């Protein structure tokens, strides 16, 4: 379930990266940042949030114990 | 991608002595810190290769970020934005934030756990065990080495292209042959010598400590340059207002540029299909052997948490300012009375050929800020970005030659720990020497820098191999061979067809085709060939009850 959600959100983020609607938009955000650049800067923050949630809710905690255990 | 440094840019004004003092101070500080880390060396091969798995979250983040961000992050991002516009950020940075973190989470953590449990220190040890095949090591080894070497050369030659022009005319009596600039052989000697000193003394730990310092330096320099340049251009809004409008969008257009070599047409913007398929390039971090080694230095899996979350943020902190500086520098194409650009800066920047756009950051800092201390700091930042990748690459090649060739052939039991460290250090010295000499030989070759995108493409295309190894029990030895061979064939075919230049097929990046070929070969062949033994499956795919 968790894996499915993570994969789905990852795909949505990959799709959102292709912001074709901004291609020829020459508006400025905050008076200095081209809208295409502002979108991708905001996108980077969304990616940070995404990975923070993945780390919190889908962390493979059992792997660490397995790595530290003696090999049979 | 790194064609930005493939020609020496026109020489700007010489730097002041104080700039060189700042640079020297930086190098002394770096060496002191790194040599101090050498005091922590425990004398074992595990400590030399993977710092005895002792690196905590912050240093792991800094060393992984510093290693993945080459000189391109600082000077290349500015240059590329100056060349093609603000689309550079989405093309190279925001996609990397998503994909790099995915590689750290999906590949890095799992590889760390497996390698720690079974004592692997190289990728090839991992693949040999996973696919129960010595042969896979013998076909992967030359492929990985051949892909790392151009990457190393780009770093060393890049330092020549930065330091040479910036010191032009400064030492006319000392270096008459180069017109007074610090000659390449000396720059290379210093860069290679400093890097060699700290990886010789401290191995992986030395590299991690040095990278942490270097990463902090080059990130701080990027932000400092951004602040000072925006201030000089009249503030953020005024700086963007004076930029060339064609650089504020991703629409493809043309700009006529007149330089010393005549008039040429510069292509601005990027096509949506190139933008889409460029997303395969950041997959390269999944197969970088030097990054693999950094992952193994982690103290625990939890150490990766900060790297997974903060790596995309670090990319944004570094790249947004650098891309904006590049866009602002296009103001030289739209002169207005009383603008901030001195004629000398405009003369250099407005005529820069595409192959020299890497000079944009240093020229902009030099002419707009012009404070010798700041110029020295920016030079130090650029060298920091270069050296923080070089050290890990040198070390990983030494580690691979020692473990995958010498110890694999002769048996690790034949050597003491001290002897293994000695062998590794000897290989590192030899590799640094070879790269140094090669860099001097190839310094004037224009196409060396075009190899960077091909190096990244090769690593990215091979990433399907490690994904299958970690997540598909049914991936087989024959499938692994087929995948590597398919990548090699498609890569070589497209590389030869391109003549080693940047190249697309109808806008599609070659990396997408090579990756698809490798993945398809892995799937098709694995479905019809002998599965790995149950022991191997148990070893690499523990049941939840085993964890």
Q: How much of the residues of chain B is beta strand, in percent?
A: under 5%
The average pLDDT score of chain A comes to: 91
From the alpha carbons, calculate the radius of gyration of chain A and give it in angstroms.
18 Å
Number of strands of chain A: 2
Number of helices of chain A: 3
**What series of H and E elements makes up the topology of chain B?**
HHHHHHHHHEEHHHHHHHHHHH
Number of E-state strands of chain B = 2
Give the SSE layout:
The complex is a heterodimer of chains A (72) and B (547).
Chain A: H1 2-16, E1 28-29, E2 33-34, H2 35-57, H3 61-68
Antiparallel strand pairs in A: 1-2
Helix pairs in contact in A: 1-2
Chain B: H1 17-38, H2 45-50, H3 57-68, H4 71-84, H5 87-118, H6 123-130, H7 135-166, H8 184-232, H9 236-241, E1 253-259, E2 262-268, H10 272-277, H11 289-296, H12 303-329, H13 343-349, H14 360-369, H15 372-410, H16 417-442, H17 451-471, H18 477-498, H19 510-527, H20 534-540
Helix pairs in contact in B: 1-8, 1-15, 3-8, 3-11, 3-12, 3-15, 4-12, 4-15, 5-12, 6-7, 7-8, 7-15, 7-16, 7-17, 7-18, 8-12, 8-14, 8-15, 8-16, 11-15, 13-14, 14-15, 15-16, 17-18, 17-19, 18-19
What is the compact description of this entry?
The complex is a heterodimer of chains A (72) and B (547). By secondary structure, chain A is mainly α.
Describe it.
The complex is a heterodimer of chains A (72) and B (547). Helix content of chain A is 64%, strand content 6%. Chain A is mainly alpha-helical. The longest helix of chain A has 23 residues, at 35-57. The two termini of chain A are 31 Å apart. Chain B is mostly helical. Chain B contains 20 helices and 2 strands. Chain B has helices at 17-38, 45-50, 57-68, 71-84, 87-118, 123-130, 135-166, 184-232, 236-241, 272-277, 289-296, 303-329, 343-349, 360-369, 372-410, 417-442, 451-471, 477-498, 510-527, 534-540; strands at 253-259, 262-268. In chain B, strand 1 (253-259) and strand 2 (262-268) form a beta hairpin. Chain B is globular and about 75 Å long. Residues 1-6 of chain B have low confidence and may be disordered. At the A-B interface, helix 1, strand 2, helix 2 and helix 3 of A face helix 5, helix 9, helix 10 and helix 12 of B.
């Amino acid at each position: 379930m968790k894996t499915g959600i993570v994969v789905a959100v990852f795909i949505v983020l990959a799709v959102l990266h292709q912001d074709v609607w901004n291609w020829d938009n020459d508006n400025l955000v905050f008076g200095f940042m081209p809208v295409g650049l502002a979108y991708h800067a905001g996108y980077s923050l969304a990616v940070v949030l995404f990975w923070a949630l993945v780390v919190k809710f889908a962390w493979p905690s059992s792997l660490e114990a397995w790595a530290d255990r003696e090999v049979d | 991608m790194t064609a930005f440094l493939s020609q020496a840019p026109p020489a700007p004004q010489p730097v002041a002595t104080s700039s060189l003092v700042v640079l020297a101070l930086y190098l002394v500080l770096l060496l002191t810190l790194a040599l101090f880390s050498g005091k922590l060396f425990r004398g074992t091969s595990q400590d030399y290769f993977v710092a005895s798995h002792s690196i905590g979250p912050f240093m792991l983040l800094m060393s992984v970020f510093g290693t993945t961000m080459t000189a391109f992050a600082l000077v290349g991002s500015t240059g590329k934005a100056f060349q093609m516009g603000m689309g550079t950020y989405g093309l190279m940075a925001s996609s990397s934030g998503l994909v790099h973190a995915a590689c750290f989470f999906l590949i890095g953590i799992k590889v760390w756990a497996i390698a720690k449990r079974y004592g692997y220190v190289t990728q090839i040890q991992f693949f040999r065990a996973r696919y129960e095949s010595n042969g896979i090591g013998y076909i992967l080894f030359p492929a990985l080495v051949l892909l790392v070497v151009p990457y190393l050369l780009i770093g060393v030659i890049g330092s020549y292209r930065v330091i040479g022009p910036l010191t032009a005319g400064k030492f006319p009596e000392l270096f008459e042959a180069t017109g007074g600039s610090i000659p390449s052989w000396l720059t290379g000697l210093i860069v290679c010598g400093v890097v060699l000193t700290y990886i010789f003394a401290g191995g992986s730990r030395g590299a991690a400590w040095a990278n942490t310092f270097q990463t902090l330096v080059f990130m701080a320099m990027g932000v400092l340059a951004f602040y000072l340049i925006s201030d000089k251009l009249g503030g953020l809004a005024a700086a963007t207002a004076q930029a060339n409008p064609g650089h504020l969008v991703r629409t493809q257009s043309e700009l006529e540029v007149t330089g010393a070599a005549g008039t040429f047409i510069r292509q601005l913007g990027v096509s949506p299909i190139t933008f889409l398929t460029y997303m395969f390039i950041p997959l390269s971090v999944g197969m970088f052997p030097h990054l693999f080694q950094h992952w193994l230095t982690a103290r625990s899996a939890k150490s990766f948490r900060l790297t997974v979350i903060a790596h995309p943020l670090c990319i944004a902190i570094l790249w947004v300012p650098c891309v904006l500086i590049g866009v602002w520098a296009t103001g030289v194409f739209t002169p207005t009375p009383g603008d901030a650009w001195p004629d000398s800066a405009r003369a250099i920047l407005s005529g820069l050929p595409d192959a020299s756009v890497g000079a944009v950051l240093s020229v902009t800092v030099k002419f707009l800020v012009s404070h010798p201390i700041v110029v020295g700091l920016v030079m130090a930042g650029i060298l920091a970005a270069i050296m923080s990748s070089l050290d890990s690459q040198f070390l990983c090649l030494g580690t691979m030659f020692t473990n995958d060739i010498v110890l694999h052939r002769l048996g690790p039991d034949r050597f003491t720990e001290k002897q293994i460290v000695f062998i590794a250090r000897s290989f590192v010295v030899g590799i640094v020497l070879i790269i140094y000499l090669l860099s001097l030989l190839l310094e004037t070759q224009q196409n060396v820098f075009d190899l960077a995108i091909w190096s990244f493409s090769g690593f990215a295309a091979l990433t399907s191999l490690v994904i299958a190894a970690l997540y598909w029990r049914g991936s087989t030895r024959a499938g692994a061979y087929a995948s590597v061979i398919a990548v090699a064939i498609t890569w070589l075919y497209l590389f030869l067809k391109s003549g080693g230049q940047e190249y697309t097929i109808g806008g599609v990046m070659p990396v997408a085709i090579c990756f698809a070929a490798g993945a398809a070969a892995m799937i098709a062949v694995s479905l019809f060939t002998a599965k790995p033994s149950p022991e191997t499956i148990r070893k690499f795919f523990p049941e939840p009850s085993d964890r």
